[in-house]
Amino acid sequence: MIIIMGTGASPAQVEQVQERLRGWGFDIHFSQGVERTIIGAVGARKDPAMAPMLEAMEGVERVVHILTPYKLAGREFKGEPTRIRVGPVTIGGPRVVIIAGPCAVEDCGQIVGTAKAVKAAGADMLRGGAYKPRSSPYAFQGLEEEGLKLLAQARAETGLPVVTEVLNPRDVELVAEYADMLQIGARNMQNFILLREVGRARRPVLLKRGLAATTEEWLMSAEYILSEGNYDVVLCERGIRTYETSTRNTLDISAVPIIKRLSHLPILVDPSHGTGKRALVAPLARAAVAAGGDGILVEVHPSPETALSDGPQSLTFDDFRQMMDGLRRVAAAVGREM
Ligand code: PEP
Ligand code: MN
């Protein structure tokens, strides 16, 4: 349930409400709006007598029961869109944020070269996997810590904040040492131990949609992270499994306005994994921005034909520059900055 405090509620009144909720065994989460404080109480059993008791307390305006299974991720708990800072970048504001880079970090020249090229073309952040969740155990699995060091070097040379995937709960601390943002991949969207672990890390999280996850399951995964006290979660639509075989996945553009209605969290779109095909990346990136997405995550490689993973969907530097030109026009048309 959420407890909406009146506009004139004093800090002492807010504290008294919290004390009572803690006494009943609830975890407390705050949503500080422009005008009022909202207290989220989750994690304990509700009793019908609680709401009237709370409503009788000084400073309380009303108590609302949240009907959705996700509580902190929903619009009821927080009406205004959440803005998430990753270094100098803000995700969830007027600016369309562009995150670009190779599928996997392969070597110094590849990652630093890509970082420089995408930055020159207007990217805001760098991506690149050091731990790769490959379908085959014989495929390239990533450079691991060496890859993290190369990402940090690319950041040092370009100033671009870095997002990279963490696969294993025991690596969260190490990855957080090097990266500005932690990525949870589609295959791990329901790895609840990993979600709790990144919920305890002090780094923003990019949470990709599971291969066959409904929007509700996806928001419940976000809820795992939020409920641990990490409120900096950005969602990323990356395509879902359908019967269609002409694309790698079916990019669900409708997820953008749906998530915007249900949640205050920002949402990015990944048209690279969403389609698996280079030629489809730019058109779907434009669609994502037109639909209200907060940004785009795309794979870019200096020579996709030699990439160790996801070459067929990786943009060349030239493709990336062209995509950016098109996106700028769409962003301007829908009143966004880029
Ligand atoms: C990735 O972004 O590198 C990746 C593996 O994507 P996904 O988890 O969406 O398949
Ligand atoms: Mn990839």
Structure description:
This protein is of the alpha/beta class. The chain folds into two domains: 2-64, Phospho-2-dehydro-3-deoxyheptonate aldolase, domain 1 (Alpha-Beta Plaits, 2-Layer Sandwich), CATH 3.30.70.1140; 84-333, TIM Barrel (Alpha-Beta Barrel), CATH 3.20.20. The chain contains eleven helices and 14 strands. The protein has helices at 11-23, 50-55, 108-120, 145-158, 172-178, 192-199, 215-227, 255-262, 271-275, 278-290, 317-333, and strands at residues 2-5, 27-32, 37-42, 60-64, 84-86, 89-91, 97-101, 125-127, 162-165, 181-184, 205-208, 233-237, 267-269, 295-299. Strands 7-8-9-10-11-12-13-14 form an eight-stranded parallel β-barrel, surrounded by seven helices. Strands 2-3-1-4 form a four-stranded antiparallel sheet. A two-stranded antiparallel ribbon has the order 5-6. The two termini are 38 Å apart. The mean pLDDT is 97. Phosphoenolpyruvate (PEP) binds next to loops. Phosphoenolpyruvate binds at residues 103, 129, 133, 165, 185-187, 208, 238, 273.
